[in-house]
User: Which sequence fits this backbone?
């Protein structure tokens, strides 16, 4: 070993973290003679998968996805279902939307008013009594009004009789469909909430009501009805823009590929260019938000908040609020400061990370098939996500219609009890509670299967998390095996065996399914506990117990940290499994001890490398987001004509941004796994060999020297 070379770090005593590796002349890289590991966990994993398949079959038999696709009226009939009287009536209409502001809505999860299916929403203010007066002169007024009444309704009833029979709404007001339901057509004028420039209106019962009351009712409903109906319009937008989305994702894939190729030659230049580019974009965003906020600040009447306007389909309304621009400005400022601070504190380590990325580029260049592997991971993840979503929908729609007693006004001892709508009007409940309604509530049943549906939902979620983490673990282990084969080749690329990725993938599946399932099980359990804590927090968010809130916050923080630590340990354990073929616990222990014996070198690699790659992901997804925004908002018609019939332009926009990030993450995760594998092999190499002719290092001399220089600086600090 030359005088310039230094032995591995010995800051910690070796007896605390195991003995250092010793020279083995027979070791030539990943071990070929292996045996199956963690067989018991493999068997349990397979049994869970079999149970998961059986659960999907049972849910498919009992479920009915139509209950998600179509809103349901008070009689349990689907709105817009083909082959039914409601085929052309696709929108749900509430007789008295103001009753939805009742606190009982949040308790019974049902608005206490009659709901019918209609073909369109009302377009003007009109009460039933006004309609009767106009009907005497023009019969067409009844024809317009009866669209929002039951088929048995008549235009000549008195108001008390109308309220008793519940055939028609006492008043209608301008509305528009949102999530296939008629909601008030809110707008803002001079900073005030209104409907068609009116802030007050008649409710048909002789009372003058304000638009604010309607907003409160809409907010109540928005918390109770199933927002999954939004999927219909989203599906329409996907059907219109799928071609452009594929083009955008293809461009993102090309950009990611170009980024990886250029990283091998001009990694340093690209890094700093991207850093200043990201900082410049964020700075422009902060300036733009400040300008918009200042402009709105000059209007003293602009006092509305996001809470005041509630849920709106017209997203541009949110950008007329000071609160929106102020929030965006704060978020961007935090991101800008965070990036600058990271650059300041990590400036000495970025050079090492860039050099590691160059070495990773060489490895990927010799094994180009690794760039295709993210496609397989994406395909497997898509299967898992699709199966989980379909199973969840079928579970949620299992059962028969259940009807509950709701009382629009006053209290009733029979409220929230089950009822039969066919005989309700002649039942004792209707006599004891005048004005009570028998309204559809949900789908359920009393069989053993229906009683355990909540348990099946938990099982569906847990196995889904397990499978997702297993697919990711399989990819990490396969890639680690391929890159370890590259590192331990004496003459690169001549000594690299053919198809190293395929060989490593086969070993992982054949011998180490149990070990990968073991590591995935640990991570899935932690993520499940996190979700349970989040659910409990949502249920107790209105509690005023400060201690419980503090405890919840501490637990969430602890589990977040635990998840990050386990992911790090699992990733290194999979690398050791790919190299030595041992079980999960032994591999995790060996990886941990190896890292701790070289703790000073570990401090200069992983986090900085991931930060550099994260900037690349932001660059790819941000660039595609800007292009998609300009295209789908038709601001670049000189180049290409965008689609003109979108319900929500943000559907394809967010799809391209999120999809571009996933594509970039898929490619850059290969890079990250390559760097981490090379680093683990490098530490192992330093312990096995001494750089002499008989025991030469497998690492390149340039990488060895830069690590030694950085190691010396770290020790001096």
Assistant:
């Amino acid at each position: 070993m030359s005088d310039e070379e230094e032995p591995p770090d010995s800051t910690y005593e070796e007896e605390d973290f195991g003995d250092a590796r010793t020279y083995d002349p027979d070791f030539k890289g990943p071990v070929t003679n292996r045996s199956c590991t963690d067989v018991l966990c493999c068997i349990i994993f397979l049994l869970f998968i079999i149970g998961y398949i059986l659960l999907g079959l049972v849910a498919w038999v009992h479920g009915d996805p139509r209950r998600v696709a179509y809103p349901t009226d008070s009689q349990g009939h689907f709105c817009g279902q083909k082959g039914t009287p409601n085929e052309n009536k696709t929108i749900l209409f509430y007789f008295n939307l103001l009753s939805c502001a009742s606190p009982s809505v949040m308790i019974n999860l049902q608005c206490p008013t009659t709901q019918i299916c209609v073909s369109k929403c009302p377009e003007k203010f009109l009460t039933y009594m006004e309609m009767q007066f106009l009907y005497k002169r023009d019969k067409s007024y009844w024809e317009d009004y009866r669209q929002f009444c039951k088929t048995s309704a008549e235009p000549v009833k008195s108001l008390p009789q109308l309220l008793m029979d519940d055939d028609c709404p006492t008043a209608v007001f301008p509305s528009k469909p949102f999530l296939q339901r008629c909601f008030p057509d809110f707008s803002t004028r001079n900073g005030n909430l209104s409907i068609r420039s009116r802030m007050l209106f008649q409710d048909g019962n002789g009372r003058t009501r304000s638009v604010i009351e309607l907003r409160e009712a809409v907010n109540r409903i928005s918390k109770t009805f199933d927002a999954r109906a939004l999927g219909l319009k989203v599906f329409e937008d996907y059907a219109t823009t799928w071609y452009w989305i594929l083009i955008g994702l293809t461009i993102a894939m090309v950009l990611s590929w170009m980024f990886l190729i250029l990283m091998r030659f001009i990694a340093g230049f690209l890094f700093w260019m991207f850093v200043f580019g990201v900082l410049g974009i964020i700075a422009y965003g902060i300036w733009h938000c400040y300008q918009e906020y200042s402009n709105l600040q000059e209007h003293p009447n602009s006092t509305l908040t996001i809470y005041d306007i509630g849920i709106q389909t017209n997203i541009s309304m949110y950008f007329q609020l000071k609160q929106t621009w102020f929030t965006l400005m704060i978020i961007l400022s935090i991101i800008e400061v965070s990036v600058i601070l990271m650059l300041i504190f990590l400036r000495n380590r970025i050079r090492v990370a860039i050099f590691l990325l160059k070495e990773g580029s060489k490895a990927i260049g010799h094994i180009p098939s690794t760039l295709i592997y993210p496609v397989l991971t994406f395909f497997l993840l898509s299967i898992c996500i699709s199966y989980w979503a379909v199973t969840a929908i079928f579970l949620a729609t299992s059962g028969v219609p259940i009807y509950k007693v709701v009382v629009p006004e006053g209290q009733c001892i029979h409220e929230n009890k089950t009822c039969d709508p066919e005989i309700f009007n002649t039942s004792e409940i209707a006599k004891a509670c005048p004005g009570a309604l028998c309204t559809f509530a949900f789908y359920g049943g009393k069989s053993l299967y229906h009683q355990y549906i909540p348990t099946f939902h938990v099982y569906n979620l847990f196995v889904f998390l397990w499978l997702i983490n297993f697919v990711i673990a399989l990819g990490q282990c396969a890639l680690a095996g391929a890159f370890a084969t590259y590192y331990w080749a004496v003459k690169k690329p001549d000594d690299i065996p053919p198809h190293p990725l395929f060989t490593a993938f086969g070993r992982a599946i054949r011998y180490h399914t149990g070990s990968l399932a073991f590591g995935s099980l640990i991570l899935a359990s932690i993520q499940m506990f996190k979700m349970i804590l989040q659910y409990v927090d949502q249920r107790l968010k209105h509690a005023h117990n400060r201690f419980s809130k503090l405890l919840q916050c501490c637990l969430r923080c602890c589990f977040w940290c635990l998840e990050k630590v386990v992911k790090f340990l699992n990733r290194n354990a999979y690398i050791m499994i790919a190299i030595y073929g041992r079980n999960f616990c032994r591999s995790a222990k060996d990886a941990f001890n190896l890292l701790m014996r070289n703790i000073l070198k570990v401090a200069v690699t992983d986090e900085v490398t991931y930060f550099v790659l994260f900037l690349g992901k932001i660059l790819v997804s941000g660039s595609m987001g800007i292009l998609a925004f300009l295209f789908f908002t038709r601001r670049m018609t000189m180049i290409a004509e965008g689609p003109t019939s979108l319900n929500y332009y943000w559907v394809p926009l967010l799809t391209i941004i999120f999809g571009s990030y996933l594509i970039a993450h898929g490619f850059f995760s290969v890079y990250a796994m390559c760097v981490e594998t090379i680093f683990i092999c490098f530490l192992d190499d330093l312990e096995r060999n001494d750089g002499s002719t008989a025991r030469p290092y497998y690492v390149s001399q340039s990488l060895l020297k830069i690590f030694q220089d950085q190691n010396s600086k770290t020790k001096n600090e």
Q: What stands out?
A: Confidence is low (pLDDT under 50) at residues 1-15, 103-109, 224-229. Residues 230-297 form the longest helix (68 residues).
